[in-house]
Write a structure and sequence with these properties.
Elements: H1 4-9, H2 25-35, H3 37-59, H4 72-77, H5 83-94, H6 102-119, H7 122-145, H8 167-179, H9 184-202, H10 210-225
Length: 233
Amino acid sequence: MAFEYIFTSLPSLPEKVGSKPGISVSDMARMLDAEGGVANALGRMVFLQKDIKVLEMAELGCDVPGGALFSADALRERSMLPAWLASLLSEGLAGSEGFGFDKVWRAYFRRAVEAADAAQSSFLRTWLRWDVGLTCALAAHRASRMKMDSGVQSLGIEGTPDPSEYRAITESLVSIEERDEFNWKETDLLVAGARLSKARSLAPVYTFDLDELMGYAAQLMVLSDFEYLGSKN
């Protein structure tokens, strides 16, 4: 299946992390919604990451802006969220021992990988597993710094890369932390740059097919998530 029409409406993505993309994640989500089919189903799964991050911020007491797929009101009410996500949130909030988003992310990545496998999207099958591996490597690194057990292996997802694949990233993190333990901007630039570079290396170009479309969506997500790094503050 080709998506030439959609690509004529998609601007070129900026090369540099911190640059503002010429299209918002919400706008692309609406384009995929109009397209329907597998492109919309997979696109919504990719973009749901942004909404989950907003919900996680809300649990920490932050304001609730709109997500990629849902408005601020919909995220507050949670009635429009996927049933599995709304159920997990309700179970967590009702618990007496507090609420951790680890189980939400585990469920999300498991469902996203299953959707990518079912659709036979070569890009997403590899990208999502690599992203899971990176998430686990970063969690293990932070736990090591705090002399704690991360409790994270592969989030139960088979086929994630060996931890050694992320050694260059974690070693660079150590170098940054040794210079300035609270240098969050340089740390975020490192992680964002690694994610963007990996997505670009995996995404096909000028094929106008599902994998190129999902590659564009993943890159847009990274650029959108880290757009604040372009701020001078």
